Amino acid sequence: MALKHCVHTRIGAAAAAVIAAPGWSADRFITVASTTSTEQSGLFRHLLPVFEKKSGIQVRVVALGTGQALDMARRGDADVVFVHDPAAEEKFVAGGYGLRRNEVMYNDFILVGPKSDPAKVAGGRDIVAALRAIQAAKAPFVSRGDKSGTHAAELRLWKLAGVDPVSGRGNWYRETGSGMGPALNTASSLNAYLLADRGTWLAFKNRGDLRIAVEGDRRLFNQYGIILVNPARHAHVKQAAGQQFIDWVVSSEGQRAIADYRIGGEQLFFPNAAAR
Amino acid sequence: MQEFGRSGAVALGLVTGLDSDLLAIVALSLQVSLSAVAMAALIGLPLGAAAAVGRFPGRRPLIVLLNAFMGLPPVVVGLVIYLLLSRAGPLGHLGILFTPAAMILAQTVLIVPIIAALSRQVIEDAWVEYGEQLRSLGSGPARSGFTLLWDTRFSLLTVILAGLGRASAEVGAVMIVGGNIDGVTRVMTTTIALETSKGDLPLALALGIVLITLVFALNASAYLIKEAVQRRHG
To answer: Chains A, B: CB contacts under 8 A, how many?
Structure first.
């Protein structure tokens, strides 16, 4: 059950909210713009209490698609971004919106599909061939369509396959414009294929007839990065506390905490900050 | 149908177990929606009364506007408030984006038209009936407005409950301006949306049952209080 942790701080937070709705100056906190995959996979629920206990800094996570999270940070509404679209992250830093980009961890994307497997792709390792087969079979495919990191990865893979999925829109290609979980719900009821991040998939409960169809292609690599929002651009950014969080996430202690997160014995994220 | 049974059991477990996370979320939901309704009533009732008994230029466009804005899409209101409160926006220096205060503000904007438009109709009907009498007693428009607000208070309670219904049911606005932050801005509706996203449909539905029960209890108590007061004062 998701609603079970960290009892006292939550009641305290609610009490504080009742008493002091505007302002919120009393507590030390930072706002992190992150992705639905880190939130919905349960990683933050595992990770943040460890950091909060150690540092006394509360981490407030707003979970959005990567595109939207970066946009929120560009507007100055976050102190730290923790997302998974390296190309967009580098653009964010190059534009002067963020300081250094730190790699944190990786996992992989997987192609999920119905048990009936109308495109006959199950068990394969070649994601590009699988996408071509799906298009050829006109098998239903659900796309995030929300400028998230997973959506960006999906579009890159279609390009590699030389397929313009937009031509199948309204037919076999369904753009849902929704988060990973809602897209999985849609695919589950349509018996469609979709590209998912492994973390959300492992935590997802409403699978229906969906199975992993293709995995293990190195082009399905999914890298996460963390960036401090540039205080020179937004003076209110909590530089010290934000940097403290980043330093902890990439420290050996933070990396170990990430590696420790498992669902049903399976590790969801693989730390690789030290590798670079 | 199996899902409904399972959800009922989960809901019962949540309520009887007094899950502390759930209590915190329920408390925040009530705080946000009741504050928004209180603020909206403070603004909307006088506004409705003024539109009912006042005679001023722009009155009819105002009435049409209030009626139309009863259907304001929460997601649009959320977006507008988000852009206003964002650090890059005109009210960014307040630093209240992603706090309950921002959620109260968004819901207030959503409910003011409902309370103003419905109370305008209630008071105007009373004005047709008692207007002449009030005028003969020498009441000006302001005085008449307040008199009618008081006289129609039992009908206006239903108006306010309509506002509360809107506030406690909406998810679009509070999701955007609150950010659905765990332990800070997570309320019932955003929790239901999140659990649906995770594919935990029984838990999501169970939370929905809890929310509907809560709204029912609020309405029942309002009704009982109204009955008791009416009986005492005839």
So the answer is: 121
